[in-house]
Design goal:
The structure holds 2 protein chains of 2 kinds. By secondary structure, chain A is α/β, with parallel strands linked by helices. Chain A has a single domain, classed as P-loop containing nucleotide triphosphate hydrolases (Rossmann fold, 3-Layer(aba) Sandwich), CATH 3.40.50. Chain A has 11 helices and 10 strands. In chain A, the strands form 2 sheets. A 6-stranded mixed β-sheet of chain A has the order 6-7-8-3-9-10, sandwiched between helices. A 4-stranded antiparallel β-sheet of chain A has the order 2-1-4-5, covered by helices on one side. In chain A, helix 4 (125-135) packs across helix 5 (141-154) and helix 5 crosses helix 7. Chain A is globular and about 55 Å long. By secondary structure, chain B is mainly alpha-helical. Chain B has one domain (4-212): Phosphate transport system protein phou homolog 2, domain 2 (Methane Monooxygenase Hydroxylase, Chain G, domain 1), CATH 1.20.58.220. Chain B has helices at 4-36, 41-69, 73-106, 115-137, 142-165, 170-178, 180-212. In chain B, helix 1 (4-36) packs parallel to helix 3 (73-106) and helix 3 (73-106) runs antiparallel to helix 7. The chains are: A alpha/beta, B mainly alpha.
Chain lengths: 275, 219
């Protein structure tokens, strides 16, 4: 993988320390997070912490704010016209909304995978994975080769594409494209991976592969996943957060949320009684 | 709108209540047979078999509901508890048959002192009724009451066992030496009643789990 020197060259922003409670060992701490699109409030005072090397699922009915929340965790939301955010999101002890922080640095440390596989259509499989590195100034071809291979291996795609790395990224199956997108994120060596309904466009077999991959990745990463599939949340995640109308209704260990939720609203939603 | 899962839950609830009624009837009839020397062993055997078949039906339906609808929260807890309760009701039927078997094997017991069995049977039957009622009303506090009653049943069983091992007066000795069928039948039936009481507690535990999501403190 990338050497520490290489990575230091890429990662320009020194972490902004805050004299805080160190977020009680959380990799990501969301504190009183509010978000608006124009005058419409999408997130209301969200507060919770995500432990390192865990998978957290965000569930809730359409329009409850899941995607807004996940996009707020790497400042992707601010690219939407009219969007505004108030509150804090800490990555370790760095508030990613601190005015001194470069959003590009944050996006590097917190990767994202989207609902629909979106490989760069004109680029080869190899270039799709290498793109981020090249954009960030990595020129060492041997290093890039190593990172591409390791990222494709980590996304369990290497064995399927190693002989055809020059084929267009858009020429492989949907499930493979999604794993390619995951490999593209992994190449940047993120600490956190955000996944917005990563399997909703995939068939059950491709979905199962992604779920297995997610489980493998948590050894090195902290993963936050938005899903509409309740069984997927129950299968893959260690913690589950249930959101409704922009509010965090309940957050806890997945076993508790699905076996013994503490809030009636959670119970009704996960039991299919509304939504 | 009714969820598809609700149709299955209604079906499994109906089977459980049928099992509850049949198991109560089985135990009541067995005790009555012991007390009055009447009753049909074949009839209790048939009910016991019915309960066993119904237990299999509950298990199969529960597995089908889990596989098809992936129930969660209260639904999941209810289905798990139905599987446990159905086992309890099936055991009630089996113990009722075992009591009938003892009565049949030992022959007429009219001359024996039946008070120890009848005394414990009152408590055990009360426990069965309470466990069934708790299932109907989802009374999470029944488990506590059932365990208190179970302590009484356990104490009665141990007391009788001690008396057999070390008879404390001549009357006890006379009864036991003159006809071992009396103390043997009493001891065995007390043992079955003690097991029935345990299963009534487990049903109370299941109700506690359905309602609260946590295991009964005594479990």
């Amino acid at each position: 993988m990338m050497t520490s020197e290489e990575y230091a060259n890429v990662d320009h922003q020194p972490p902004q320390r805050v004299a805080s409670d160190q977020q009680r060992g959380y990799k990501v701490s969301i504190k009183n997070l509010n978000s608006w699109f124009g005058t419409k409030q999408a997130l209301k005072d969200i507060t919770f912490g995500v432990k390192e090397n865990t998978i957290t699922s965000l569930i809730g009915p359409s329009g409850c704010g899941k995607t807004t929340l996940i996009r707020s965790l790497n400042r992707m939301n601010e690219m939407t016209p009219g969007a505004s955010v108030k509150g804090s999101v800490y990555l370790d002890d760095v508030n990613i909304y601190d005015s001194a922080i470069d959003p590009v640095t944050i996006k590097r440390r917190i990767g994202m995978v989207f609902q629909k596989p979106n490989p760069f259509p004109t680029m080869s499989i190899y270039d799709n994975v290498a793109a981020g590195l090249k954009l960030n100034g990595v020129r060492d071809k041997k290093l890039i080769n190593e990172i591409v291979e390791e990222s494709l291996k980590a996304s369990v795609l290497w064995d399927e594409v190693k002989g055809e790395l020059n084929k267009p990224g858009s020429s492989i199956s949907g499930g493979q494209q999604q794993r390619l997108c995951i490999a593209r994120s992994l190449a940047m060596q993120p600490e956190v991976l955000l996944m917005d309904e990563p399997t909703s466009a995939l068939d059950p077999i491709a979905s199962a592969k992604i779920e297995e991959l997610i489980n493998e990745l948590k050894r090195d990463l902290t993963i936050i996943i938005v899903t509409h599939n309740m069984q997927q949340a129950a299968r893959v995640s260690d913690y589950t957060a249930f959101m409704y109308l922009g509010e965090l209704v309940e957050y806890g260990p997945t076993k508790q949320i699905f076996e013994n939720p503490q809030q009636e609203l959670t119970e009704r939603y996960i039991s299919g009684k509304f939504g | 709108m009714t969820r598809l899962l609700d149709l299955g839950i209604t079906r499994i609830s109906n089977i459980i209540m049928d099992m509850a009624n049949l198991s109560v009837r089985s135990v009541d009839t067995a005790i009555e047979s012991y007390e009055k020397g009447i009753g049909s062993k074949e009839q209790i055997f048939e009910w016991s078999e019915q309960l066993r078949v119904l237990q299999d039906e509950v298990t199969e339906l529960a597995v089908e509901l889990i596989a098809r609808y992936q129930p969660v929260a209260t639904d999941l807890r209810f289905i798990r508890s139905c599987m446990e309760s159905s086992y309890g009701f099936s055991r009630f039927g089996r113990y009722a048959y075992d009591i009938m078997d003892i009565i049949g094997t030992m022959g007429p017991l009219t001359h024996c002192d039946k008070n120890p069995v009848l005394s414990m049977a009152n408590t055990a039957r009360e426990m069965i009724h309470l466990s069934v009622k708790s299932l109907q009303t989802q009374d999470k506090n029944a488990a506590e009451k059932l365990y208190a009653m179970d302590d009484t049943v356990d104490a009665l069983y141990r007391k009788y066992l001690r008396e057999i091992i070390t008879p404390s007066n001549k009357n006890d000795m006379k009864d036991m030496t003159s006809d071992p069928r009396c103390y043997l039948s009493t001891l065995l039936i007390l043992r079955y009643l003690e097991r029935i009481s345990d299963h009534a507690c487990y049903i109370g535990d299941s109700v506690h789990y359905i309602v609260t999501g946590v295991s009964s403190p005594r479990r």
